[in-house]
Amino acid sequence: MTAAWTFLGKIIPLYLLLIWFFTCKHWWYHVILVPTVMYGYQLVSAVYEDVSTVGGTIDTNQLIYLAPFFIAVLSIVYLIRIKIFDRIYGIDLSEIERENISPFSPFSDKEYQEIKEFREEADVDDNITEEYYAKL
User: Fold this and answer.
1) What ranges do the domains of the chain cover?
2) How far apart are CA 7 and CA 4, in angstroms?
3) Quick check: 47 and 10 in contact, CB under 8 A?
4) What is the pTM of this model?
5) pLDDT tens-digit series, residues 28-75
6) At what angle do helices 33-51 and 2-23 cross, to 10 degrees?
7) Fewer CB atoms < 10 Å away: N or C end of the chain?
8) What is the 3-state secondary structure (H, E, C) of the chain?
9) Distance between CA 6 and CA 50 in Å, rounded?
10) Cα 106 off chain centre by
11) 54 — phi, psi (to 5°)?
12) How much is the pLDDT for 107?
């Protein structure tokens, strides 16, 4: 009787997670593999412990064996997320490098160069000084 409850407690969520995985249309559906594999592994280990003569407690130390799988799936899903958001928002890191933006300065090198050019032009003509202060 206890074995039936244990098996049903693992088969029903596994079945529902598989349905959800195969019918999900979102980009993150690979994350559903994590609990699916966990329930599958628990079901297989419960059947093995029930069939074998080695008696032990069910569902102990299983996360240790599944942790590498979890880490691999979550890293792949995160990389997929980064690629999707880069395409959606059009983030181009080469443009940031071209602008020479310093993380420690409120101005980029390009802006410092423009300020320097305005100052040089201000020495030549006083009318440009007004434009210089207006642009600042």
Assistant:
1) 2-91, 103-135
2) 5
3) no
4) 0.50
5) 888 888 889 888 888 888 887 777 766 666 666 677 778 888 888 888
6) 150
7) N
8) CHHHHHHHHHHHHHHHHHHHHHHCCCCCHHHHHHHHHHHHHHHHHHHHHHHCCCCCCCCCCHHHHHHHHHHHHHHHHHHHHHHHHHHHHCCCHHHHHHCCCCCCCCCCHHHHHHHHHHHHHHHHCCHHHHHHHHHC
9) 10
10) 29
11) -75, 110
12) 62
* Inter-residue contact 54 to 30 (CB < 8 Å): no
* Angstrom distance (rounded) from CA 87 to CA 91: 7
Yes or no: say if 56 and 49 are a contact pair by the CB < 8 Å rule: yes
Reading the block at residue 123, the tokens are 């020495």
Token pair for residue 75?
Answer: 């890293």
Alpha carbons 126 and 136: distance in angstroms, whole number: 16
- Token readout for 36 is 């699916």
